[in-house]
Amino acid sequence: MNFASDNIVGASAPVLQAIVQANAGAMAAYGNDAVSQRVRERFNEIFEREISVFFATTGTAANALALSSAVPPYGLCICHREAHVIDDECGAPEFFMHGAKLAGLPGVGAKLRAEDVAAYLTSLPKAPKQMPPKALSISQVSEGGLVYGLNELAALGQVCREHGLSFHMDGARFANALVALGCTPAEMTWKQGIDILSFGATKNGGLMAEAIVVFKPELAEALDYRSKRAGQIISKGRLVAAQFEGYFAEDHWLANARHANRMAKLLSEGLMQVPGVRFAWPTEANEVFPIIPQALDQALKAAGILYHPWTELSLPEAERVGETEVLIRLVASWATREEDVRKLLEIASSGVSRQAAE
Ligand SMILES: Cc1ncc(COP(=O)(O)O)c(C=O)c1O
């Protein structure tokens, strides 16, 4: 049983079928085809306005290109210190920003608070030797599995406006956040001040389905060229775009995300009943962050369950992981089976009762 991430499963059937359907016949290359055009229009409908959409094959490419559009080489981009853009992309955003830097701030559950961002911005000296802040990047869902509420997004958007920053959202788990909030894509993005979005679909049923969605038109001006320089103008672009036809059809994407979130909730409610288990922070989307006794960690591993240990860096201030405990991350996906969740919970409870009996 594998709870290591939501990209450990393949692509969903509607996505694969849409690729097969788009495969027939000859069409213009490099995204100048009817399928890509239809998908761009679908994005307009979903976001309730005219936007620019650039397809990409990885989230790292989408993030790096989005940030390179928002930040000049001498600029600073603020993010959480555990953000994927600063921690997990081998410097790609900084590489594509041609010298600009990422500044990582702390925050519980890998979430940034508007007041902390504002205080940091105010503290920065304004001199030519100081890199001027030009963008804020947040991850929705955060790397701690938390979801920014609309008020929190609006407050961050306000800080960005006041300080002249572009506002980027890394939406690798966009759909999981959306169904958790029960709002519209427009409400979760441009209506709260998001200027540019990395729209991820790979984790939620895609094969390699990422898109840069631009709400602030000037950020789209050079993205075609930037994408080409990054090798992201895809020759058979229709096969990448087609994934989104299958993804959006009949709200397949929302159903997938609801399923993943429901499985995570089931996991978290079940683990809550297991003696000795507590939570780093609440389960809000499709990721669960329990602090478990080492013995339980061993029992789960012995049963062949896969998951990652997690960093304690973003725990609330008074919270610590004890010497005989481990903080772990369990991730549910669109394909997680309820029977596997129940099996894990059974193993967890029997692991603890066996321990008590010994
Ligand atoms: C928050 C976040 N952003 C972006 C990505 C996309 O990264 P990749 O380049 O692996 O598609 C991931 C994937 O793990 C992620 O968790």
Break the fold down into its secondary structure elements and pairings.
Blueprint: H1 13-23, H2 34-47, E1 52-56, H3 59-70, E2 76-80, H4 84-87, H5 92-96, E3 101-105, H6 114-123, E4 133-139, H7 150-163, E5 166-171, H8 174-181, H9 185-188, E6 196-200, E7 210-214, H10 223-229, H11 237-248, H12 252-272, E8 278-279, E9 287-288, E10 290-293, H13 294-302, E11 308-309, E12 325-331, H14 338-357
Parallel strand pairs: 2-3, 2-4, 4-5, 5-6
Antiparallel strand pairs: 1-7, 6-7, 8-10, 9-12, 10-12, 11-12
The protein binds pyridoxal-5'-phosphate.
Pyridoxal-5'-phosphate (PLP) binds at residues 58-60, 63, 84, 139, 143, 170, 172, 202.
Family: Belongs to the threonine aldolase family.
Cofactor: pyridoxal 5'-phosphate
EC number: 4.1.2.48
Q: How does this model look, in words?
A:
Strands 1-7-6-5-4-2-3 form a seven-stranded mixed β-sheet, sandwiched between helices. Strands 8, 9, 10, 11 and 12 form a five-stranded antiparallel β-sheet that branches. The longest helix has 21 residues, at 252-272. The chain has helices at residues 13-23, 34-47, 59-70, 84-87, 92-96, 114-123, 150-163, 174-181, 185-188, 223-229, 237-248, 252-272, 294-302, 338-357, and strands spanning 52-56, 76-80, 101-105, 133-139, 166-171, 196-200, 210-214, 278-279, 287-288, 290-293, 308-309, 325-331. The chain has 358 residues and is α/β, with parallel strands linked by helices. The protein has 14 helices and twelve strands. Pyridoxal-5'-phosphate (PLP) binds next to helix 3.
